[in-house]
């Protein structure tokens, strides 16, 4: 595993398996961006599943921003999706999935419509762009409805205020999206074990579903 710089100048973490990778996977981190948590995740997924994994920084040049500032930073959808596509190229694989968490999960929906990815897994990604991030472009539902959009697995918590029931119902109407809701889960219940919202059993089930979904 090693830090690399994408052609755009964005930092990324690249983890390669021993031997030929079975597929590529790009990780879109949560709102706090690329850090030790995602370095370790990339390394584990590469070693455990034989994937070539590239985790991409969401806030290049702004890594110093506090959470409150990140929450008010509008989306640059073209840059983010472009960086995720460059991360796919960095894996060296033709067949590449994109997975993401929280804000990164929303970017999975947007990237799914790019035509570069063969699968997407969104962990509690916002289904509609929150007002403070809205730049007038990049609505997830619009990207998912494109003809070139790849199949997506949406993993959601039943008690997550960032994915209200009406949005979940709208997501269910898309033929290329499989929605799985864990009724008792709140936001961010899978990827960060140190959080109070973490649910080990639900997290293990969600990862198992993810691995099966990407085993194509």
Keywords:
216 residues, alpha/beta, Rossmann fold, eight-stranded mixed beta sheet, 7 helices, 8 strands, 33% helix
Helix share, percent: 25-40%
CATH homolog superfamily: Alpha/Beta hydrolase fold, catalytic domain
Mean pLDDT across all amino acids: 95
The whole-angstrom Rg is 16 Å
CATH classification, class level: Alpha Beta
SS field, number of helical segments: 7
What is the count of structural domains?
1
Low-confidence stretches: none
**Termini, distance in Å?**
25 Å
Per CATH, the architecture is: 3-Layer(aba) Sandwich
Described by strand count, sense and barrel closure, the largest sheet is: 8 strands, mixed
* Principal-axis shape: globular
DSSP strand content: 15-25%
* Number of E-type strands: 8
Look at the helices and sheets and give the structural class. alpha/beta
Order of SSEs: EEEHEHHEHEHEHEH
CATH topology: Rossmann fold
Strand order of the largest sheet: 1-2-4-3-5-6-7-8
The oligomeric state is single chain
Topology:
Layout: E1 2-5, E2 11-15, E3 23-28, H1 36-49, E4 51-56, H2 67-71, H3 77-90, E5 96-101, H4 103-112, E6 119-123, H5 140-144, E7 152-157, H6 165-172, E8 177-182, H7 200-214
Parallel strand pairs: 3-4, 3-5, 5-6, 6-7, 7-8
Antiparallel strand pairs: 1-2, 2-4
Give the gist of this structure.
The chain contains 7 helices and 8 strands; from the N terminus they run βββαβααβαβαβαβα.
Structure description:
The protein is of the alpha/beta class. The protein has one domain (2-214): Rossmann fold, CATH 3.40.50.1820. Helix 5 (140-144) links the parallel strand 6 and strand 7 (152-157). Helix content is 33%, strand content 20%. The chain has helices spanning 36-49, 67-71, 77-90, 103-112, 140-144, 165-172, 200-214, and strands at residues 2-5, 11-15, 23-28, 51-56, 96-101, 119-123, 152-157, 177-182. The radius of gyration is 16 Å and the shape is globular. The mean pLDDT is 95. An eight-stranded mixed β-sheet has the order 1-2-4-3-5-6-7-8, with helices on both faces. The chain contains seven helices and eight strands, in the order E-E-E-H-E-H-H-E-H-E-H-E-H-E-H.
